[in-house]
Amino acid sequence: MSDIATPGTTADEHGHDSGDLELPNGRPAPAPLPHEPRRADVDPKAARRAERQVSTMFIVASLLFLAFLAAYIGIDKNVVIALPVIGTMSASNLALGLTLGLALFLIGAGAIHWAKKLMPDIEVVQERHVLESSPTDREEAISVFEAGATESGFGSRKIIRRSLITSLVLLPLPLVIILRDMWVTPTDSPSPNELLSETIWTKGERIVTDGSYRPIRPEDIPVGGLVNVVPASLEKVEEAEGTLNERAKAASILVRMTPAEIRSQQGGSAEEPWDVQGILAFSKICTHVGCPISLYQQRTHQLLCPCHQSTFDLADSAKVVFGPAARRMPQLPITVDSEGYLVARSDFQEHVGPSFWEQGAS
User: Fold this and answer.
1) Residue 166 and residue 292 share a domain
2) Within this chain, do residues 220 and 296 fall inside the same structural domain, yes or no?
3) Each residue of 257-276: pLDDT tens digit?
4) In this structure, is the dihedral angle defined by the CA atoms of residues 51, 57, 60 and 65, taken in order, positive or negative?
5) The model's pTM
6) What band does 129 get if pLDDT is binned at 50, 70 and 90?
7) CA angle, 48 as apex, 102 and 105 as ends, to 5°?
8) Cα–Cα distance between 333 and 165 in angstroms, integer?
């Protein structure tokens, strides 16, 4: 690298200024320590040895990336192994973690070793200047960069360059595999689109309070009130496997406003509206990333998600009025049964839960 001395000083043979420098407080700056050349700077054999060490790290990193791919394909995810202290764990997770972690470590260690052993370590001093560089400074910066690129050995040390490029080319492979593995649809299981398209709400399903499972009449909800509700059938299968998913999908809220305040609904007609005396039912799960919502502003009829502040106007088909949500909150059609209790007319007519690539915005 080129040595740039501060004006008024003279650069010595080691790249240090020999003139008198002052600190911002006016006190003289301490004299710099003399430059001590490294062994690789004076011994060509040491330089070649360091070059081999760096390239070996990059090559091993490349092999570990390939081992990651082989482990992902060849190790059954159901195989577990017992380890001392740690206990049992997935053999696939252990192999993937070790290969990817060691590969990334070796790339970083190789780069550090390269810089410490082979790249120039001469200190330079440059006077501070205004942010706008002059043409001379720009030309000088370009020459310094070109000199640094030459002295780093990236162009001349072919084995380091090629091994580094190989390891970096293979680096995206584990990342692509990890992203692809976020969802793999088994042949006998439904896709996310199918999972969220149906809930356990059915025609005639009685609406009950969440937790106490108490059926609800319209007169139980005052104007401005909000009640967390679930289907009555959920109580019968509370201990069954998969109930948590069903609860998450079917969780809903009831809110009541005066009928005149309802500007629009997501369905129904004048003869068969989806509300009952101003009582509306909506999914409780935010359509952004799936947070449960119960924050209701009575005066504005807006439902606020506490996670990312998505806001929905329940008086106007639960449309999004603020925040990152891309879809409105799905509305559950409701009515009353022969005993005067609130029941569902059908399941939700739109997907519940967070939006994803197979869903369109409403």
Assistant:
1) no
2) yes
3) 999 999 999 998 888 899 99
4) negative
5) 0.51
6) low
7) 10
8) 59
Interstrand relation of 207-209 and 226-231 (parallel, antiparallel or unpaired) = antiparallel
89 inside domain: yes
Q: Break the chain down into helix, strand, coil percent, rounded to 5.
A: 35, 15, 50
- What pLDDT band is residue 23 in, cutting at 50, 70 and 90? low
CA-nearest of 4, 255, 305 to 128 is 4
Cα(105)–Cα(107) distance, integer angstroms: 6
- In-domain check, residue 265: yes
38-44-45-50 Cα dihedral, nearest 10 degrees: 60
In degrees and rounded to multiples of 5, residue 176 shows phi and psi of -65, -40
Domain check: are 200 and 258 in the same one? yes
DSSP 237: G
Q: What is the C-alpha separation between 277 and 216, in angstroms, rounded?
A: 14
Q: What is the pLDDT of residues 155-171, one digit of tens each?
A: 788 898 899 999 999 98
If asked whether residues 240 and 99 sit together in one domain, one would say: no
Domain assignment of residue 44, given as a range: 39-128+136-180
β-pairing, 87-90 vs 80-83, is antiparallel
Domain count, the chain: 2
Are residues 256 and 171 part of one domain? Answer: no
| Predicted confidence (pLDDT) per residue in 323-335, tens digit | 999 899 999 999 9
What tokens does 49 get? 């040895």
Is residue 3 one of the residues assigned to a domain?
A: no
Calculate the CA 87 to chain-centre distance: 29
